[in-house]
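Exercise: predict the fold of this chain.
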Amino acid sequence: MTVCLIVENSDTIRAIVAEIVESLGVEAVEAKTSTDAAEACAVGNIDVIVLDWDLPKLGAMDFLRTHRATELSALPPVILSVTENDPQQIAIARTAGVSEIIFKPFDAGQIADAFDSLGLAYGAPMQGTPEPKDKPAPRRRTSAAKKAVQK
């Protein structure tokens, strides 16, 4: 199964992205900070990263530059999530190794399009397909995150 690391400091946005990714049949791994993301990448098994531009402390570009130049130089493709269509920021992101850019607010179709352009395998399980016996328990969401996902 394809695994997507979601790096977003907003609990609500991270929950929404995780819901979208999981609806595409992709496993979601969540990280709130660049430090958490680096630890998840070091463990491995990450196929793609959805990375928020505006992260506290160590920002998205700092994360990419630092870790592409060190032991994590084999980072998977990165989909950068941004709020502004700033050509300078986009150029900086591309230079830092960003593969795709999506603009907030985005939807499942935009994430699926980014996955497609990266050649990632994904897909929701077909209805009627038996669930694997070793399927992990669903993540618990806060009531605020549930409300945000339902909108």
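Check your answer against the key: The longest helix spans residues 11-23.
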